[in-house]
Amino acid sequence: MKRLLLIAPLAPTSLFGTDFHFRLPCLSLLKVAALTPAGWEVTILDEATQPIDFDQSADLVGITAMTCTAPRAYEIADRFRREDIPVVMGGMHPSSLPDEALNHADSVVIGEAEGIWPQVLADVERGELQPVYRHTDGPPSLDRLPAPNWELYRGRGCLPVHFVETTRGCPLDCEFCAVTSFFGGRYRGRPLQDVLAELRNRRPFPGFVLKNLVFFVDDNIVGNRAYARELLHALAELKIQWLGHASVNLASDPEILKLCRRSGCLGVLIGFETLSPETMQSIGKKSRLRMEYLDAIQKIHDHGIGIDGSFVFGFDTDDEGVFDRTLDFVTRAKIEIPYFSILTPYPGTRLHERLAREQRILHRDWSLYDTSHVVIQPRRLTTDQLQEGYLRVFREAYSPSCLAARMRETTSCRPLFVPMNFGFRDGVEKLARDFFPASINVTRAAPNAITPHAVPA
């Protein structure tokens, strides 16, 4: 029996560190483990849940890496390779920069592992590991994917939620996003019967206040409306409660909204990114929404569905007022969980290519590419204004007064969103203490008058 170690490194300055209240399992490694053929003993080492024991033996180490975890991934790979243990790397960052990753790994899997991983292991057994593996005939099929073995994460203190994938890919191709280049420019759906079988066979979580909670990891669970209707009708029969990513365009489809609520939807994560139509056009973010954001949010709230809304600071059109405008909007819209990021040019994105041409990338210390640090030269802000404005808005959004204003009249699931707010508040305060000056002023300027924003069709 050969031994395989699958490793998820931890970003050194991540908001979601080892002491974050809501630890999430690494679904990508669970999927790789499920693809591993018999004859291999698999162990998952996730630094968010446990330290790595470098003294243990293995026949192969597999490491997944995002950009902000790449330096730690390389450090881990170097340690194991010094013990003559071969290392294979995969994930978003090695797929974008395979030559860089090969300075620390024996092999790189570019793109998705399905259809490739068994070949990698067969080559290891023959002593013929290749430096690069990639799909040459398009994205792999999502038919009959093996279900993850959640026992590999038992006892790790992770959030008791089932993480399930129904689709991959995204046709929007936003300038700053790597999803399209990694997963393809169209929605690819798993067979509905496969998804339902995985949900029916999910493990129980005894003692958790929210029973049968599922998180759908798709980038937009309602992106393919025909597929979504079938899925939502089926979910209603399973009597689950669920969260997932969705576009704000969800609000323009009354049938889908009703199906979401009937099927057990508690909340959706929506990437608003910006409130400015000018900014949205400049980054290539497409939307068919023909109503104001505030109206769209109200329609979603009217169905008892909460919103985790994400916003990005640092676009070329952002000025000093963007922080207060965004915070005022979040409060007025009563967004249950606001999340803020600093614009980050990930390798493999059109944003990275453009800012590199314009010589506006300040450095390539990948550990700081975590959306909490400024790594570009903004156009209308100084780097200090962007850094401090980001932190000030994040802290203010989770202050007691703002939290109360957002949650006071919510019709969404309080047992879910209230604890999430306090968990995020603790995480943001830790980020501020550990990595930014304690002198940053969190007292906000007088609120600007808010103008409801519409997204151009």
Explain what you see.
The protein is an alpha/beta fold and 457 residues long. It has two domains: 2-134, Cobalamin-binding domain (Rossmann fold, 3-Layer(aba) Sandwich), CATH 3.40.50.280; 160-435, Alpha-Beta Horseshoe (pyruvate-formate lyase- activating enzyme). 35% of the residues lie in helices and 15% in strands. The protein has 16 helices and 14 strands. The strands form three sheets. The protein has a six-stranded parallel β-sheet, sandwiched between helices. Strands 7-10-11-12-13-14 form a six-stranded parallel β-sheet. The chain has a two-stranded antiparallel sheet with strand order 8-9. Helix 8 runs parallel beside helix 9 (254-262). The longest helix is centred in the last third of the chain and has 22 residues, at 414-435. The relative contact order is 0.11. Mean pLDDT is 87; it is low at 437-457.
